[in-house]
Structure formats: structure tokens, C-alpha cells
# Entry
Amino acid sequence: MRKPATPGYEHKPGVILQAHMDMVCEKNNDTVHDFDNDPIHTYIDGDFIKAQGTTLGADNGIGMALMLAAITSPTLKHPALECLFTVDEETGLTGAFRLQDGCLQGKQLINLDSEDDGQVFIGCAGGIDTTATFTYESVAAPAGYEYIKVNISRLLGGHSGSDIHRGRACANKLAARFIWAEMKKFPVALASINGGNLRNAIAYEADFTIGVPAAHKHELVADVNKFIADVEFEYKGIEPNMTFAIESAEAPATVIDEKTAKNLIYALYCAPHGAITMNPDIEGLTQTSTNLASVKMKEGNTIVVTTSQRSMIESCKHDIARQVESVFTLAGAVATHGDGYPAWPANVDSNILKVAIKAYEELYNITPLVTAIHAGLECALFRAKYENLDMVSFGPTLRGVHSPDERLEISTVDKFWKLLIEVLKELK
# Structure
């Protein structure tokens, strides 16, 4: 979508506004919702807009809303304007990857997909996914065993980039930790294990079913209760809503063969997860991280483990991906890497950055924080195809992104809009 420059702005370099159309579709286990057909049920809680039991879609619906407002406004002053809507950002930056050379005419780009008012972003991490596939044998469940099912839920989860340094619990790591400890004590039969959903979300739910010889059932239950107490204490103040549900389960006809079960659990337990290093130049910014995103039992007697690695440095991105690959390869899985995407290197001498800083100062009497984000922004791919494109990213305040706790701070939306108006007016 394009809009001609307003009078007096015809000779200024064109500007591109960009946001992505898709959202992360996550819901609580106890929420009945069909993302293909059901509307998002929103409500106001103080200064936040939220959704009932699902993700909100403010990432990046709010960016698209401002683009539509800008391109339809009869009063806005701006250079020649382009609105670039991309698809499938959350599932691999597909739209940005497939943007053709020569499609864009503007020389400056404003990405509207950031999540912190008062901050202007000038760089982002690159990323790569690593997938490990275990193939197991379904063997007859051992006689004389009794089983329990454990469900871990209501963890905060969050974005695997921007929230990975916050020390939140990973449901997959908790599940593996408990099962590993029980395997050291008893001959454990692993009937099922599933956790997490998307590569770019910290796993906030997981469940597993295990069995032990009947004589040890009471000890197994006692161990679960002790584990819960330990974990709740460890994450006190971090995971206020952490929930464990324990119930007896019927003995299954088959379980995962002992060798594969042990290899899987040992690999999950020792696989790296979380922030690996912090950026030495920007306080609080993660440099390199990895996310143990999901564990899924699939057809064909396979268990697929999905991880996501990020780094501001290309060599470090590949290094942590190889570490993850090594862990799962040693455990007998087949590990593969995705194509990945590059980082967006920061440019502190950017013209559009200077305009954004000045505009924010004049509007709100405070200098915005100039920083980078530990997440994949489509800007990195735009710059790979248009190396002279001058870019910044800013947005309103969002919290709990990629989880059912996602929320948008309403008061920052007005600030977001006013900042965009001012930047467009002052661009040169």
C-alpha cells in the first residue's frame, strides 16, 4: 500500500511503515478456543487490555492498526509513504524472507513491532532453530506397575527472546528434572511426555505419565510433593501462578522403550536453556540464548524436541546451536538445523534514529533509551536485501507476549501514535 507525499514533502526520501499480520496462538489448557474461527475475547484491566485465556494479538496487531491509521489520515504530514504488511513472522519470518528485491521504494523504514515505550531499537539478534527427533519402540507396559500423570501449568512463559533472561521456569526442564531423579531411584516406565508449543515461546505447560513398581507408588507420590515444594520455593517471586496437578492414571498398554526413555530424559535435563551470555555494551541485553521450546510425541513412534537459539553475534549463534545438537546426538536423536536468519547490526549514526530521539524528547521531555532487542525482527532481513535502508523500531508497551498473559498498556498507545506522527513530520 502506498500513499503520495503530502505537499511540501515531495522531495524527501520515502518512508516505509512495517508490521506483521500473524499472531502467536496460545491458550490455557482449560480455555476452549478455536483460533481459526473464534474471536479474541478482550477486556480492560486497569491500564491494560487483555484477552480471556488466550494470547491477545497485540503483537503485532497494534502495529498494523497504526499503519492503517497513518495511510488513511487526511491530516498527517509525511514523505511518500509505503505500508508493508508481512505474513508468518512468528513461524519463521517467512514474509520477510520472501520479499523480492526492488519491491520497496522508500529509503527509511520504521518497524512497529517493538514492545517497550520509551525505547528505540536499532538492532536485533539473529536466530536458528534446532530440532532433535527420537525414534522409540512401543513395548508392552511392565506388569505390576502403577502410574501417575503430572501436569505442570500456569508458568509465565513469555517470549523466548525478550523474556529469556528473566529466569522464568521452563515446563520442559521441570518435567525432565523430576523424571530424571525418579529414574535414579526406580525402574521408571515412561508412558508419555509433552510440553511447550512454539519455538519462540518459553514452555509454560507440560505433562507426563510415568509408572513405577506398585510397591514404590507411595514413595513416588511423596517425591512429587517434595519436588513441588522445592520448585515453588526456588521460583518464589518469579512464578506466582505455578500449578501442579497430580492424578492416578490407568496402566497403558505400551510404554516408551527403556533405552530411548532414558536417553530422552537425560538429554532434556542437561540440554542448555536460558541466557548463555549478556551483551557487554548494552546493560540488560542478552547476547546469546537457547530455548528448550517443545517436546511432542508424534505419529510413527517419534518424539520431536524443538529448540531455538539466538545471538547478536553470528558465530555465537552457530556455537550454541552446535552445543544443542551435540547433546541430542549423543542421546541417539537425529538433530537438524533450520536455515536461520541474520542479526540486524546497530547503526548509531542513523538519520531516522536522530529524528526519533528528538521527537520523543520534544513530546515527552525525556530521552528514549536507544537499544537492541534479543529477538528476531524482520528488519534484519530487509537490511540483507536493501543494505542502505535506514531503520528504527519502536512501539507501545506490551507484556507477556506469546503467552495467554499477553497485555497491551493502553496509555502507551497514544504516545506511540503521537511519536509516529512527529517522526513522519520531521523526517528528511
Remarks:
- The domain at 2-124+343-426 is CATH 3.40.630.10 (Aminopeptidase).
- The CA atoms of residues 33 and 292 lie 26 Å apart.
- The chain has two domains: 2-124+343-426, 128-337.
